[in-house]
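Worked Example 4.2. Consider the chain below.
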Amino acid sequence: MTTTITRTARLMVTLTFVGFSSLLAHNAFAQSPLFQPLYEVLTHPRCMNCHTITDFPRQGDERRRHAQLVVRGTDNHGAPTLQCSACHQDENVADDAVPGAPHWGLAPLSMGWEGLNASQLCQALKDSSKNGNRSLADLLKHMSEDSLVLWAWTPGGNRSTPPLSQPAFVEAVQAWVNAGGPC
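Applying the procedure from the previous section yields the following structure tokens:
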């Protein structure tokens, strides 16, 4: 009888731990309500296609590998023989078929967000070794003024836009920054 109770107790502890781990893995625990709207935008394909952890960019809402087997390159702007700027200009071209914005390129690998839950992405955004050495104020400026970031809301073609309007996103970033960047 004692052995059965002990096994049952161990099984319950194990299941409880597995359930707890599962909740952690799926980001079910409370996180900052101020960061959630940022997370929804930053994990949209317009952002994630360039904030990839791969050696190649992704494209489209389905995040497929970039056509022409384009690669990251040492400076995140393509291989020496096929730089991003060979096709991507300062604005959308070819009837919006080829997207464009100034300084088109991939975010450095240190700024890759694929696979991060909300808490991990929040921490990465605040980590100066992973965010381009930016303070919270610098992040606000980047997310509200950088032409490449702003492109996400005017992508042209049949590309979807992030779930918040650009002004609403800036307001959300401002509120998060004003609160000290809670995760």
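The longest strand covers residues 58-59. Residues 2-25 form the longest helix (24 residues). Compare this with Example 4.1 before moving on.
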